[in-house]
From TrEMBL:
This is Homoserine kinase. It catalyses: L-homoserine + ATP = O-phospho-L-homoserine + ADP + H(+). Belongs to the GHMP kinase family. Homoserine kinase subfamily. Pathway: Amino-acid biosynthesis; L-threonine biosynthesis; L-threonine from L-aspartate: step 4/5. Residues 67-151 form the GHMP kinase N-terminal domain. The keyword Amino-acid biosynthesis applies. It holds the Pfam family GHMP_kinases_N. It comes from Coemansia erecta. GO terms for molecular function: ATP binding; homoserine kinase activity. Keywords: Amino-acid biosynthesis, ATP-binding, Kinase, Nucleotide-binding, Threonine biosynthesis, Transferase. Its EC number is 2.7.1.39. The keyword Transferase applies.
């Protein structure tokens, strides 16, 4: 008898201002992957037939060795001695997370691939071990940790020099890392995470420009070193932010200031028309309900955390994009919840 595996992975917003490569929030927008065993299908070198539906799939490769989800799954299986899927399977992807917008689409794809391998190969990997595999593909832990465990998550990689973690890449795209070759069996426990409190009153206003910005390009814009005062600026804010979002009644100005950043946003301004004005203009006094505003991940999406007046906040941010030169920047608005559940995988036995 065959089985069906249904995997859901949330989108994530990384950084939340000062927490570059550290913080992630999981959001109510999902990548869904369904895999059916096809016992009567002819075996193939990978045993995978891949198909996509939905709008966020154009241009994505259907070759199992090139596609980020199946490539990740094949990588995990190969580390554990399986050259391919144990039996022929049709894998169907319904992706609601827009690509290259700073909402963690690649992190979600990697997490889905690891969960898929774990399920079809009956590998019995712990959540911690799954994170190790994710980190061999996507070297910054913020998106994958939040997508895997859900909620408001802080994470770190162990020291690369002493404990063998993959070096945090600044220029390589997630896609190029695994295509370069097999990243190798991960060392144990290379990433650690902690779920933090987040008030249920907080919702996420996501303003998504209708252009893609590859994370690799936005990472390449960052400088090789930082001024001590800029690092201290971020550390001060990050320490406050970790607790400020969890208070039952969020303090808007405390959070607003705690979401400022001098480590990545200033260097990415030129890649997102409107970002300087958006960050400089709106605050809790002139925009009631607003708690804080930042670039989501590597951008170009803007993330505003808020407790009220969501549509008004969205309209103000969108108006800035509308006013940009050469006809403005088209945007889509999504009001998202911060979800406490991370990635899930459910197995059901097919009826005979
Ligand atoms: N569902 C998916 N299936 C296959 N590949 C995906 C999927 N989601 C993302 N990717 C890959 O990740 C790339 C986007 O990654 P990235 O530049 O890091 O942006 P994002 O901020 O969306 O994570 C896509 O161009 C694609 O190559
Ligand atoms: N910390 C990373 C986060 C990238 O997130 P994504 O959603 O844009 O892939 C960075 O800022 O580069």
């Amino acid at each position: 008898m065959g089985s069906t595996y249904t995997i859901s992975v949330p989108a994530t917003s990384a950084n939340i201002g000062p927490g570059f490569d550290v913080m992630g929030l999981s959001l109510s927008l999902y990548l869904h992957v369904t895999a059916h065993t096809s016992p009567t299908a002819t075996p193939s070198p990978t045993n995978i037939t891949l198909a996509y539906t939905g709008s966020n799939s154009s241009g994505l490769p259907l070759d199992p060795h090139a596609n980020l989800i199946t490539r990740t799954a094949l990588y995990v299986l190969s580390c554990l001695g399986h050259a391919r899927f144990p039996q022929p399977m049709s894998v169907h992807v319904d992706n609601r997370i827009p690509l290259g917008r700073g909402l963690g689409s690649s992190g979600a794809a990697v997490v889905a691939g690891v969960l898929l391998a774990n399920a079809v190969g009956r590998l019995g990997l712990s959540q911690q071990r799954m994170l190790d595999y994710c980190l061999m593909i996507e070297h910054h832990p913020d998106n994958v940790a939040a997508a895997l465990v859900g909620g408001f998550v802080a994470s770190y990689l162990v020291d690369v020099d002493r404990e063998g973690a993959p070096e945090s890449e600044t220029t390589a795209a997630p896609d190029t890392i695994a295509e370069d070759g097999h990243p190798g069996v991960p060392p144990e426990n290379i990433g650690h995470f902690l779920r933090l409190g987040c008030s249920p009153k907080i919702r996420a206003v996501a303003i998504i420009p209708q252009f893609e910005l590859a994370t690799a390009k936005a990472r390449a814009a960052l400088p090789p070193s930082y001024k001590t005062s800029d690092v201290v600026f971020n550390l001060q804010r990050l320490a406050v932010l970790t607790t400020a979002l969890g208070r039952e009644t969020p303090d808007p100005w405390l959070i607003y200031r705690a979401m400022e950043d001098k480590v990545h946003q200033p260097y990415r301004m030129h890649l997102i028309p409107g970002l300087p004005e958006i960050l400089a203009t709106f605050n809790p006094d002139n925009t009631p309900g607003l708690l804080g505003i930042c670039l989501s991940g590597a951008g170009p999406t803007i993330l505003a955390l808020a407790i009220d007046n969501f549509d008004e906040i969205a309209a103000k941010i969108r108006a800035v994009f509308d006013r940009q030169p050469d006809g403005g920047v088209e945007t889509v608005y999504k009001l998202l919840d911060i979800v406490s559940e991370g990635a899930t995988c459910i197995e059901t036995a097919d009826e005979e």
